[in-house]
Amino acid sequence: MSAFILHHYWPSPFAHKVRIALNMIGAPWTSVEIPRVPPKPLLMPMTAGYRRTPVMQVGADIHCDTQNIARALGEAGYEDKLFPDSGRGQVMALSNWVDQALIELAIRTVITTSIGTAPPEFIKDRGDLYFGPNWNEARLKADLPAVILQMSAQLDHAEAALSGKNFLRGDVPSWADVGLAFLAWLLRGRWDGGAALLARYPAIERVEAALATNASDHDPTITAEDALAIAREAAPASPTGMHHPASELAVGQKVVIRHKAQSSDPDIIGRLRYLDLTRVSIDHESAETGPVAVHLPVAGYSITAG
Fold first, then answer.
1. 87-211: which CATH topology?
2. Which of 48, 72, 89, 257 could form a disulfide with 63 if both were Cys (CB 3.0 to 4.6 A apart)?
3. What residue spans of 86-165 are helical by DSSP H?
4. Nearest CA-CA partner of 75 in 291, 278, 232, 271
């Protein structure tokens, strides 16, 4: 069984992003299927309250958020394949741009056009998660034409960035290209207008064709109970310490981590284990798992004393 245990469900867009990356770097992984919507009673005891998909488990180290999962994969021996030419900073900056400039618009488009066809409880859950407490279906539908115009403009920038190159940084794909491939896969598969829109951007389609297929091969599936037992029998192997000169927080201090956006995400609470410029880690313990370390990126989250 692989050391990389991916907690996901197969239709999850962001889990597919990680699956594309795992396929690109040739990393074996083990699958644990989780529910689409809360409650997630066999996952959240492991994550200190983090509810989004996917989560990657390595023993008793629990990695949340796709950007942090990419860093964890790099640290596990796949740095050159995810961030070639010692380019982690540039690749992460490009990846963040894809997430913020394009993925957010694509998610809004997909959810809006799914109203009336997807289960109402799913639309309600994702609306609360992505759009905050005061969203409504009528406003989403009214805003959709403007959202598509914004997305088209950003796609044009991405297409221009690929001019004369196979991938965003040259001939070799990186984590940033995984984001573009995932974006195209999402639009094509979840929105009736996706294929027609993408046809205007042949370079993005080439990245999609190169990376977004064959992203489902994995080691045997295990149960969520098996994954909890693996965490319980292991111990966190990640480092401890403070490596952020601008923070007054201290190792061992209770902290509360919140998603920066208005959303229905619960607080993530634990004792500070580690903090550097891009990652925060907390110690967490539950009856189901015993002691675990939960890791998130600093970017995109508010980290305050509890």
1. Glutathione S-transferase Yfyf (Class Pi); Chain A, domain 2 (1.20.1050)
2. 72
3. 88-97, 104-114, 120-131, 137-161
4. 278
